[in-house]
Amino acid sequence: MLSLPFYAASSLKTSWDNDDLIGRGRFATVRKCKLDKLGEVAVKCFCVQGSLEKQNETLKEILREFDVLYRLHHNNIVQIVGTTKWANCIDIIMECVDSGNLKDLLTSSCYFQLERIEKKC
After folding, report:
1. Which of 35, 57, 73, 85 would you label with 115, given CA atoms 20 to 30 Å apart?
2. Structural element, H or E, at residue 55
3. Three-class secondary structure of residue 28 per DSSP
4. Which PANTHER family match (predicted)?
5. The pLDDT of residue 33
6. pTM value?
């Protein structure tokens, strides 16, 4: 079982508007927040709702992601720093990196120029 710090939702500050929205996926939304003890963090919010079967499926997905993030330690991977709970959501608190997202990097012209140069070598 993972042993992660739990932070009270009241210690996380966010504007709840699109300015703090980092991304949105099938299972979760990621928001930029300020945590009293750590400063700026990213909070991945998994909403747990629907039928009992759907809730169990979502909880399994959350636990898989917690486990993967908790085990990975590399300079190029954000680190999980804790958990929290907002309303019907269970949340992973991670380092916040302001370098953009992977999709933007992969679709940037700079990345594809490097890829074409490497293929010629």
Report:
1. 73
2. helix 52-71
3. strand
4. MITOGEN-ACTIVATED PROTEIN KINASE KINASE KINASE 19-RELATED, SERINE/THREONINE PROTEIN KINASE
5. 92
6. 0.72
